[in-house]
User: What shape does this take?
Amino acid sequence: MKTTDIHELGEVIRQERKRQGLRLEDLADENISPATISNIERGASHVRYEKAQYLLDKLGLKLEDIPHLLLQERDRLLELQRQARKIESMIVVGNVEIARELLDHIEVDDKHPLAATFHFHRGQLHITQKNWRRAESALHHAIHLSNVVKQTSNVEAAAFQASALSTMSRMI
Assistant: This one.
């Protein structure tokens, strides 16, 4: 299984766990720890197949359901990527209210692959309002998340640049 598939499978498992209203601790037992469940959800490649299968069974997911669920997850990710591009475009052309409205309707947790992107956009919006502290907080959070999630985008560099510009603007 490719690394992207492992991450997508982990996201599918996380979404199903949350849909069922379960915490990591609720699924943990003598055969699987909360840490192992977390590793599976994060797509850690060192987790044994048997543990992932055990977790799927506990969630009531069948192996034959996984391809369909992966396609659904890819569709959700593509839609979120489209939303991120739309938000970025609205910020660039100065339609910050539309960007803010779009961003307010996005719900992703900090473990989501696009979390850093959305925090970066929040930082950009705070800069447009000259709300420097919130901008710094959102941008630093974006930097942190881009390191945690190991994004292959330029969010970290863009957030560093925006943070530096925000700091310079505050000093002027």
Summary: The radius of gyration is 18 Å. The chain is about 75% helix and 0% strand. The mean pLDDT is 86.
